[in-house]
Amino acid sequence: MNVSDKAIEMLCHHEGVRRKPYQDCIGLWTVGVGHLIGDGKSLPPEWNKTLTLEEVHALLKKDLVRFESWVCRLCPVNLTQPRFDALVSFAFNLGAGGLQRSSIRMKHNRGEFEGAADGFLLYTKAGGKVFQGLVTRRKDERAVYLGV
Which tens digit of pLDDT belongs to each residue from 75-100? Predict the structure, then answer.
């Protein structure tokens, strides 16, 4: 399964599209559409450059393959396109471990879709702080998951 164009638009909206490396809200080095550079803790000299939009899209495409695979592995049942899109967006933001440990995954795999959808709203913190951008993103992911 692959994310839809609508999901890619949502990712670009929430992650932002940056051609130059920057530190995100918790200080991790990132570029493109939420692409973590190395371990995120330091900026290697070879990344101190401006990417073309083609390079940004290539990075996103490569990253999405990994996240799509994780969602298929961690949530192998009850996947519809909207649920898949929302779960990929969530995993893209929190990583495979975040999805694996989440109540969203557990409820989704048990077929508790309303509970899984509501679970998105619990993940609004980064670095111990609530961020309005994450609140908005989780509301959007919840709506996508429910097919709204």
Answer: 999 999 999 999 999 999 999 999 99
- What's the Rg (C-alpha) of the chain? 15
- C-alpha distances (whole Å) from 114 to each of 4, 13, 55 are 22, 25, 38
Please tell me whether residue 51 adopts helix, strand or coil conformation. Answer: coil
Q: Which of 15, 46, 54, 68 is catalytic?
A: 15
Task: Provide the sign of the torsion angle of the four alpha carbons 130, 128, 43, 63, taken in this order.
Answer: negative
What's at 70, amino acid-wise?
W
Residue 56 φ/ψ, nearest 5 degrees: -60, -45
In the residue annotation, 54 being an active-site residue is answered as no
